[in-house]
Amino acid sequence: MSYDQATGDTYLFWDEILEGPLTNEGISGQKFNPAGDRQWGDSGLVVQPFTSSAVLNVTSVFTSTGPLVVWSSEAAFAQATITGAKLDPSGAFLCSPFAVSSILSSKSRLDLTLSLNDVALAAWSDGRADGGDIYAQDIKPGCSWVSKRLDSARRAHLAGRCPPVLASLGVIARCSNTAWRAACRWTYSYSSKAEQRGTNRPVDCQGA
User: Fold this and answer.
1) How far is CA 171 from CA 84, 104, 129, 188, in A?
2) DSSP 8-state code for residue 168
3) 16 CB neighbour count, 10 Å cutoff
4) Beta bridge partner(s), residue 71
5) Measured between alpha carbons, how far is 182 from 192 in angstroms, rounded to an integer?
């Protein structure tokens, strides 16, 4: 569910299930005005038609141009993907369903938030490499993205003046903006608890 503070409108998205012996699930949505009246028809709008994939999680945020909805769906056990779509307040697609994470793996605990610069940030538990790393995706206003990963086995400890980053296994990235290099130089990553107690290792990082 997401909320437009300027108008008082509320947007609700849900997993639509067609009863039967086979899996038939999709994504639907509805807009409510401040009085609670339905604005997208009695049945709402179809965001994703029925497919044979089971929908696991649905979440949304309201952006400057309309609601963004993101959901995970699983075609087979531990074979899940994450998809997103953005609509304008009238219910027209600004971004038709697009891949947020197309790698087939177990996915859970999907969450979504919005930054001050209107970039949506999705995060989830992902079992593609082990028992469940934390993966994240930044979804820009035009629905493009750059994926990032935070390794659960060796979480980076980031300090200093460096912009927000996600690092994996100590050193994985370099500053994409040369103006940040001086700040990134003072960021440290610990690849183990022993190293955290002892010698710090400086690393570069990539701005989110």
Assistant:
1) 30, 25, 18, 10
2) B
3) 19
4) 58, 83
5) 25
User: Which one, of 99, 37, 30, lies nearest residue 60 by Cα?
Assistant: 30
First to last CA, the chain: 26
d(CA 101, CA 7): 32
Domains annotated on the chain, with CATH: 2-153 (2.120.10.10), 154-208 (no CATH)
pLDDT tens series, the chain, 208 aa: 999 999 999 999 999 999 888 889 999 999 999 999 999 999 999 999 999 999 999 999 999 999 999 999 999 999 999 999 999 999 999 999 999 999 999 999 999 999 999 999 999 999 988 878 899 999 999 998 755 544 433 333 333 333 343 333 233 333 334 443 333 332 333 333 333 333 333 333 333 2
CA–CA distance from 20 to each of 16, 52, 56 (Å)?
13, 12, 18
| E-assigned strand segments in 131-187 | 133-139, 145-150
